[in-house]
Fold this protein.
Amino acid sequence: MNENSIPNFREIGEITGSTDSRDVLAHATRQAAKNFDDYLIVDVDAHVSEDHFWSEIIDLIDNDVLRQIGQHQVKGFGGSNALLNISPGLSLQSVGGRIGHQGRREPVQDDGVHRFISTARRSMDAMGLDYQVVFPSAMLLLGMHPQDEIEVALAKAFNRWMIERILPIDTRMKGLLYLPFNTPEACEELVAQYGATEGIIGFTVCSTRNKPVHHDCYMRLYSMIQELGKPLAFHSGYHWGDPSFAQLNRFLSMHALSFTHYNQIHVTNWIINAMPERFPKLNMLWVESGLAWIPFLMQRLDHEVMMRPSEAPGLKRLPSDYMREMYYTSQPLERGNMKLLEATMEAMNAETQLLYSSDWPHWDWDSPATIGSIPFLSEQAKRNILGLNAARLFNLDTTRRKPLAEDVLANRPKTAS
Amino acid sequence: MSAPAMTTGASRQVVLGRHEELKIRQRMVIEVEGVGIGVYFIGEEVRAYLNICPHMGGPVCQGKIMPRTLEQVADSGKSLGLGFSKDQMHIVCPWHGFEFDMLTGRHPIDKSVGLTPIPVEVSNGEVVLTVGETRP
Ligand code: FES
């Protein structure tokens, strides 16, 4: 044997759905330690996986009848999907279990801290995030629920759960108030009740729904939000039941198209009906559609508006000009062709308008290195996209909030990796 | 996509154990001086790859091992449905699901994307890895 032999090695284990997030994400922590430990990083879209805590939310429903039905379903067939309209058999995100962190259930010691916060802190520390904004994932389809009153009841309960139980525990967690958009009056009530609450940094509408955003029934709501000075986010999603998407036989096909589809519809209505002229101070944020659709829509709308200005009479500039002033989140970032990505980022003014988002723990999540390793971005552009743009939009304190990446690596459990 | 560089300093050898005993395991993942490496046993063949995914640097060797999924197509062009390959196994990255052929280390669709191979051989009945001195 060669005298340079190294007889010692350590075996490391498989990563599964119950592996500690700090071990699953250890490579991301190393990337952070090496490349951007001193960056402010704000993750504008991570997911609560509130299904683990669904019974807590059901218990907060203010309507006696709906709460009773929900509590009954929690104990039975409905389980952690009680009152929801998601279809478990169509939940193919984990690719047959290949991607274990989608729907993960990792052990957490009962140390008196809410389990949601304990797991969220692990992923924040491991990715080097100073702040994380949580979106409710199982509620992303609620806009297609046939019972509007259930969307309202769950929206109220979820917002209370987030505001009363979650956000006060850790100021690194921030929330966007869920708006039950199918019922505008309920949205107005929620904005009036919680809009100024600390920790609520904006408002969110789940985009998967068939409601035209320019309808007059929403004008009071937009005025209220504009008055508060906090952004309005539209979070896209999928819906395999949509007749167009029902033609698609694979989850990937439906997922690739539908996540861009709903935000394209809403941006188109928003611009062609001149909403940016009507609410010029309302900051709009478009979430989880990636970026490739943005130059597509800019070109399509500019092209048609030039030929048919009589159908968009409220516009004073081209649609692409308005789109360049909106904000977008980065995930799932299409990185397969860097030249196209560079042109896209230039077209949308990514340096000031793009906000990093992880979508953790969903299967197509993006680590901060997704932005940090883009070769054509300047150091300042990376800092802006990873955190400074979000700090400006959401008015966040830019003082460091996260532990040192080296300390996170030293303290992780090392059950795997 | 760019494969992470493994610089080659003076190489050193790591003896993992007797091939007869190891080959009944499909895979072992080890860490040598901070470098993660997955070692795969496919019949009498042995392969080793760096535990860093060419996609976004995930711990590719620590995910599931799955048979390649195939779609059989009849001469008529009709699909005969999905099935698992009986002889091709895939290394699946646990971060986002990129799959790599266990024998070749290549992605099944875009063959320009692949794992970083680490030299491994069976010598005198022992599985021996050769690793560079420097870190990836
Ligand atoms: S890092 Fe391996 S699939 Fe993304």
